[in-house]
Design goal:
Mean pLDDT: 95
Helix content: 25-40%
Oligomer: single chain
Largest sheet: 8 strands, mixed
CATH superfamily of the largest domain: Bira Bifunctional Protein, Domain 2
CATH topology of the largest domain: BirA Bifunctional Protein, domain 2
CATH class of the largest domain: Alpha Beta
Radius of gyration: 26 Å
Shape: elongated
CATH architecture of the largest domain: 2-Layer Sandwich
Number of helices: 13
Number of strands: 18
Number of domains: 2
Structural class: alpha+beta
């Protein structure tokens, strides 16, 4: 009869003590004594130490096996406070499934080397923890919007026009034409709301930004929403609710992974329950001035300014009404203050800066065409987009969440490249 293998996490309990179990996985650590071999075995659920003694059937295989070899083993569980997880398996049977060559990841843990061997570094406890949290974050986004009656709406990845400025477009040869990798689903989402009213999507996004900072990658994932009838003050509240919902789900499902990453659980609990404030761009400049940083009105907030605002509040803060002149063509002026746009960013504390950005959408075709002209872009490729305003225009709004930025913040990562399995940057496109 075939053996029944169980996840390693299921062996780490008092109920399994004295019982025989069978597990399968990979050798994470190995330590040899004269008459014993200690193996730390990992699978996707966790790690456990197993020991083989001289004179036993499995001892030769235990001596032979190498780091990252795959195996199956059977043995009895016992408690041992010195072992990882507090339990250990006395091996009775050990089969080597795939004997690994000498593993290239040793003491060299430099960032560039680990990116070179990213396909192997994914097996590390750190990356496994991050990827599990990433899965929770993505699942939470879907759960959040579906529970509120939103429909998932998939946009094209190849587009004929820019959404967030022509300077950060990736060109793609499309038969005899030139197309671009999408910067955002937004323009197509605005078409979708006239059919489905409330929609969302989680999809890859591409920005050819010549940036080498720890907060930028060229290919990232955006969780975006768009809704008919909604105004700015409504979508900012949806965004706050979404971020808190995501954090609560991670706290519910991933405390062991947060512990591996050394994350402060109490701080995340604060982020999950706090009331996030909303201020205007003008208010933000006043706060910055009191802290010794005088920013001319009309200038966008940079890295340092966002970090100071995040530290000032100690929780995420929503900043609305940025200067209209520095905003995208589709963001309308605020009738109460026409020099500002009906838009917002959410800034996270601890130096993680902007994690959400959105706005109301303009229905003024003439003004949008003028704004495009000012920015040096023609309106010809946007005529289909302007059609949306000609046939039953309604107030509508939307925003996008930078998935990797949220994951970086929740996990406390120093570099956004660790928030995705295979990061793409200016210089990094392999493996």
């Amino acid at each position: 009869m075939a053996k029944k293998f169980i996840p390693i996490k299921d062996t780490l309990s008092k109920e399994k003590v004295g019982k025989e179990v069978s597990i399968r996985g990979w050798v994470y650590r190995k330590r040899e004594l004269k008459d014993k071999v200690f193996l730390v075995i990992r699978d996707s659920s966790g790690i456990i130490q197993a020991v083989s003694k001289e004179g036993e059937k499995a001892f030769k295989n235990a001596q032979k096996i190498t780091i990252e070899s795959s195996l199956t083993l059977t043995g009895k569980v016992r408690e041992d406070s010195r072992a990882p997880g507090g339990f250990e398996i006395d091996i009775s049977e050990l089969e080597i499934v795939g004997l690994a060559e000498p593993f290239p990841i040793g003491r060299d843990l430099s960032e560039e080397f680990l990116l070179d061997v990213r396909h192997l570094w994914l097996r590390s406890q750190k990356m496994i923890a991050i990827l599990k949290i990433r899965s929770t974050v993505l699942g939470a986004i879907h759960e959040f919007f579906r529970s509120r009656g939103y429909y998932e709406f998939d946009p094209p990845i190849l587009t004929p026009t820019a959404c967030e400025g022509t300077m950060t477009l990736f060109k793609v040869k499309y038969f005899d034409e030139i197309m671009y990798l999408t910067q955002s689903w937004q323009l197509y989402a605005e078409a979708g709301i006239f059919a489905l009213e409330k929609i969302y999507d989680v999809a890859p996004t591409f920005r050819a930004e010549p940036s080498k900072t720890a907060m930028h990658i060229a290919e990232f994932w955006m969780a975006e929403m768009e809704a008919a009838w909604m105004k700015l003050d409504e979508i900012t509240e949806v965004a706050k609710d979404e971020i808190k919902f995501i954090i609560k789900k991670v706290l519910e499902k991933n405390k062991p992974e947060l512990k591996i990453l050394g994350r402060d659980i109490k701080l995340l609990e604060k982020y999950a329950t706090a009331e996030y404030p909303t201020i205007t761009y003008t208010d933000a400049l006043k706060i910055l001035e009191k802290k010794g940083m005088k920013i001319p009105w009309g200038k966008d907030l940079r890295t340092k300014e966002e970090e100071i605002l995040g530290d000032h509040f100690g929780i995420p803060v929503v900043v609305t009404n940025y200067p209209k002149d520095i905003m995208a063509f589709y963001k309308p002026s605020d009738p109460k203050d026409p020099k500002t746009a009906l838009c917002f960013d959410m800034i996270a504390p601890e130096g993680y800066r902007e994690i959400v950005g959105g706005s109301e959408r303009s229905n003024d075709i003439k003004q949008m065409k003028e704004d495009l002209k000012k920015k040096g872009a023609g309106s010809g490729d946007y005529e289909w987009y302007f059609d949306l305003r000609k046939y039953g225009a309604v107030p509508h709004s939307g925003y996008g969440v930078g998935v990797e930025r949220v994951i970086s913040w929740i996990c406390g990562l120093k570099n956004i490249k660790d928030a995705i399995s295979f990061p793409r940057t200016m210089k990094r496109f392999r493996p």
